[in-house]
Design a protein that fits this description.
ten-stranded mixed β-sheet, Peroxisomal Thiolase, Chain A, domain 1, 2 domains, globular, alpha/beta, 354 residues, single chain
Length: 354
């Protein structure tokens, strides 16, 4: 059975995660309820004519995938698998608005065509002339992990030797307003918005696109190996620790074998209860990392988390801005990621230095 290696990374987020090494230019924004993106120069990757017709999620996905391919030293792959929670919500809003504004008549199809969840994967495939397996998972907060799991199985079963896997989500005005009305986003005028010390419900919203090139062979530029991925729909508070222990045991590991743990704290006081016992007891002697204070919360924010975990292994360093505790290790070999949202869509991802 073939192993799965991360050979390329590409990330567009609320931080400067392109043309940098690892969060050395990161900024902590505690005043906004929706984090703005740090955008690249799109015309360096996409023709100006095409840019005009693309929503930001599509543009960010194309750029992030191009960055990942560049690092992996590949021009194309055998398969493209993406995950998204809301899809191209910006174009969906444009199309619905045009229905209302034009009384359901004389509608141009462009926004509708580009509003589907698989638009990003399709546009990337067109750009690199990839005619292979192309699938998009829309599974809430485990959309990205579903894509990652599929890719890992394909490589293990030798159905593909190189796969582009990514998580993409974008914000849009009307959807953000609805999230605010529903109490999903933090209330205005309550800043500073702290993730670790929050006493209120709701999150700071974000968006982004993160891609990984997965291959079945180790190379000079290999970043990490993906050892395992597990997904659970619902877990009780008291079940989480035992599930983590059994997940590690299935990979012949124990808690003390983990060199760093990445947790998906998002600032919602109820949701973050799932991490409290882990930080206070289970992983108290292990370096702890968080990341959603940098990326914001969105359905595929865990892809940004995997980018952070991969960078920790690649650079052998945890930036101070991402630390929950002050512990360090001389070598970061094995890293565990745990993410959930409001007690559902739990995911464990285990990566290791190759």
């Amino acid at each position: 059975m073939k192993k799965t290696y991360i050979n390329g990374l590409g990330c567009i987020s609320a931080q400067k995660t392109f043309d940098t090494v690892f969060l050395e230019e990161a900024e902590l924004n505690v005043n906004d309820t929706v984090l703005p993106l740090k955008t690249p120069v799109y015309k360096d990757f996409i023709s100006p004519v095409a840019i005009r017709r693309m929503a930001k999620g599509v543009k960010n996905g194309i750029v992030a995938s191009a960055l990942a391919l560049r690092e992996a030293k590949l021009e194309t792959v055998e398969a493209i698998i993406t995950g998204t929670g809301m899809g191209c919500i910006e174009d969906s809003e444009k199309f619905l608005k045009s229905i209302l504004d034009n009384d359901e008549q004389f509608l141009t199809p462009t926004s509708f065509i580009q509003s589907t969840h698989n638009t990003v994967g399709g546009q990337i495939a067109l750009g690199m002339h990839c005619k292979g397996y192309n699938l998009t998972y829309v599974n809430g907060s485990v959309s990205f992990e579903s894509a990652l799991y599929d890719a890992k199985m394909m490589i293990e079963e030798e159905e593909a030797s190189s796969i582009l896997v990514g998580g993409i989500d974008e914000t849009a005005d009307s959807a953000t307003s609805l999230f605010q009305l529903a109490g999903i986003i933090k209330e205005e005028n309550q800043s500073p918005y702290s993730v670790l010390e929050s006493t209120t419900k709701g999150v700071v919203l974000g968006e982004g696109a993160t891609f990984f090139v997965l291959e079945n062979e180790i190379k000079v530029h290999t970043i990490a190996e993906i050892l395992d991925v597990a997904i659970f729909n619902r877990l009780d508070l008291e079940e989480v620790e035992s599930k983590i222990i059994s997940f590690l045991a299935s990979n012949d590991l124990e808690i003390n074998d983990i060199d760093a743990v990445l947790l998906g704290h998002n600032g919602d006081v109820d949701s973050d209860l799932y991490y409290k016992k882990l930080t206070d007891i289970t992983f108290s002697n292990i370096p702890q990392v968080y990341y959603k204070h940098l990326s914001g919360e969105y359905d595929t924010a865990s892809a940004f988390g995997l980018w952070v975990g991969s960078k920790i292994i690649q650079t052998q360093n945890i930036p101070d801005i991402a630390k929950i505790n002050t512990l360090d290790k001389q070598v970061y070999k094995t890293v565990l990621l745990y993410n959930q949202r409001n007690g559902i869509d739990h995911s464990f991802t285990l990566i290791s230095k190759s």
